[in-house]
Amino acid sequence: MTIFKQFTFDSAHFLPMVPEGHKCREIHGHTYKLTVFIKGPVDEQLGWVVDFNDIKHVILDTLNKVDHKFLNNVPGLENPTCELLAKWLWNNIKQTIPRLRRIELYETPTSGAIYEGE
């Protein structure tokens, strides 16, 4: 069974590696939408893979490091593209949720990254 939980967070950043004049080289912000997917067997007694509330607390520990933050100042996110932020989130979440199978990170309603580990 695969379950999922969604979160939103707000952050500011700029992309230092893009050419001069590119709009993303200027400081700007996003309301990100993160969906985490966790795979595992359904516990026969409890009837779930894992308690959604437990997922929430673990994910919020990670999101507190980036929510309402300037991403360029977060260690490991000096070039905070959507793709690199997705990998950073994966690496932080996977430590506490080993059954993590996929994350989807939307930087805008129409753009984002899907990461399933390497």
Question: What's the short story on this structure?
Answer:
With 118 residues, this protein is an alpha+beta fold. The chain contains two helices and five strands.
Word description of this protein:
There is one protein chain. The chain has 118 residues and is an alpha+beta fold. It has one domain (2-115): Tetrahydropterin Synthase, Chain A (2-Layer Sandwich), CATH 3.30.479. The protein is built from two helices and five strands. It has helices at residues 52-63, 82-94, and strands at 2-13, 28-39, 69-70, 100-108, 111-115. A hairpin with a 2-residue loop joins strand 4 and strand 5 (111-115). The longest helix is centred in the C-terminal third of the chain and has 13 residues, at 82-94. It is elongated and about 60 Å long. The two termini are 21 Å apart.
Any idea what the shape is? elongated
Mean pLDDT: 97
What is the strand content?
25-35%
Q: Count of DSSP helices?
A: 2
CATH architecture: 2-Layer Sandwich
| Major beta-sheet overview | 5 strands, mixed
The third-level CATH topology is: Tetrahydropterin Synthase, Chain A
CATH superfamily: 6-pyruvoyl tetrahydropterin synthase/QueD
How many domains comprise the coordinates? 1
Share of helical residues: 10-25%
Mind telling me the CATH class? Answer: Alpha Beta
**Low-pLDDT segments, ≥5 res:** none
